[in-house]
Amino acid sequence: MKIRLDSVVKTFDTFRAVHGVSLEIESGELVALLGPSGSGKTTILRMVAGLEFPDGGAIYFGDENATDIEVRHRGVGFVFQHYALFPHMTVGENIAFGMKVSKTKRSTVAISDRVTDLLRLVQLEGLQDRFPAQISGGQRQRVALARALAVDPKVLLLDEPFGALDANVRRDLRRWLRKIHEELGITTLFVTHDQAEALDLADRVVILDKGKIVQTGTPEEVCRAPASAFVMNFLGDANRLKVTVSGEKAHVQDVAFDAPGIADGPAELFFRPADVTWREDGQGIQATIARVIDRPDSKRVLALTVDGQAIEFDTAPEFPFRADTRGFVDIRRPRVYPA
Ligand SMILES: Nc1ncnc2c1ncn2[C@@H]1O[C@H](COP(=O)(O)OP(=O)(O)OP(=O)(O)O)[C@@H](O)[C@H]1O
């Protein structure tokens, strides 16, 4: 099922949480809505679900204008971070619940077969008679997904489903969710504020800031070509140096970087800590090492340019230099944005 948002606006009292968002999610696509807290991700998801209604614009499911259709008639499945399972029902009963109350009548045998299939799909065979309190948080979210899938939703909506789980479990679950998505191909909208989660999982990432889309693209597109300083910063660690642009070149000391399309005047040069090579001589920005921090698989080096701007970069654990060493910072893949 293809979903289309056309200039959707949502205002709470006088506060505009969503400012004219337009977005197409192709049938079978997994799209992540990514943005900082308060950027409007959950509000957009709730409007697609029919739990909240826009005060401007429209939402289409396929060719049908679904803007005012109620939640129970939209054919959507949800998993929320805190959408608790029914504690007094077993895992199997939780998964069966939607099928039992659905308009589509199913026989007891059909429901039981479907529960068995779904337990296999979410890799929880054998746990069907446990109660939610008797399984782990990660297992509970897998049951929640099975419950959402039980009624064959046309669209799956996931709001930080792994948000409450620890980092290793989250990583395993998102890889697992991606596999399930590939198997079932249900159009899926996934809300997260975790960049790694969005980049790992999604076919396309939609980045939001203050209720507006600031960039949409594949993980590769948003990583390799962030559209603004905000996206560059939000997607990961970034160094930021003040520069002056003239004739589409950004100048730092006597080093010039390409700055296509950037007007003359003050600007900012961004680059990732992984995109730096330290040189003892030769090309690069002159700097002095201020501190070296050990990490399990690398060293993080803090350096200062001659005009006192801070640069951080990552090196191999064998990096031999210490504080007060002078040298040159050679930068790959720099990006220049207006100041
Ligand atoms: N029912 C409501 N009444 C008033 N303001 C609301 C309501 N729901 C959301 N907001 C406001 O709208 C803005 C967007 O909220 P939303 O929950 O969509 O953001 P989010 O990007 O999902 O954030 P988070 O990652 O923290 O969940 C926030 O400033 C929030 O305070």
Give a description of the structure.
- The chain is of the alpha+beta class.
- A hairpin with a 2-residue loop joins strand 4 and strand 5 (64-65).
- It has eight helices and 20 strands.
- Helix 2 (91-101) packs across helix 3 (108-121), helix 2 (91-101) packs parallel to helix 4 and helix 3 packs across helix 4.
- It has helices at residues 41-49, 91-101, 108-121, 137-149, 167-184, 195-201, 219-224, 229-235; strands at 3-12, 15-25, 30-34, 56-61, 64-65, 76-80, 155-159, 187-192, 204-209, 212-217, 239-246, 249-252, 255-258, 265-271, 276-279, 285-295, 298-305, 310-315, 326-331, 335-338.
- The chain folds into two domains: 3-230, 3-Layer(aba) Sandwich (Rossmann fold); 237-338, Nucleic acid-binding proteins (OB fold (Dihydrolipoamide Acetyltransferase, E2P)), CATH 2.40.50.
- It is elongated, with a radius of gyration of 25 Å.
